[in-house]
Amino acid sequence: MKLLKCIKCTLTLSILSLVYIHLQMQIIDLAYQGKSKENQINNYSKNNEQIRYQIYSLKSAHNIGSKLLAQNDEMQFANENSIVQLVASQEIMDGELRYAENTGEKKKNSLISFLSLDFQKEARAQE
Predict the structure, then answer these.
(1) Domain boundaries, the chain
(2) Which of 64, 80, 93, 96 is 20 to 30 Å apart from 46, CA to CA?
(3) pTM over 0.70
């Protein structure tokens, strides 16, 4: 009877220890898998940065301009001879002057109000 009870306890303890070892091995395996996935993500991120740089360099004005000039020999950069001056009517010129004056007055007013606040603060501090 005691031998049977001892064998049952030994088998139970052996099975529990095997289950525990199996769970620990799964935990370690998942940790290795997580580390490898993290390395993949880092590699993808670096690759993404390189591809993004290549896309931006392909979209750059310098690259597009050099391709256009290479494809079409007739195209040239603007020089002094290719500049055209247009004569505007007096109404358009008056409208632009009014716009410039209005925007200039708002900037001056904000600057004056800013400075006047500083002078008032100084005057209060001296009192």
Answers:
(1) 1-60, 89-127
(2) 64
(3) no
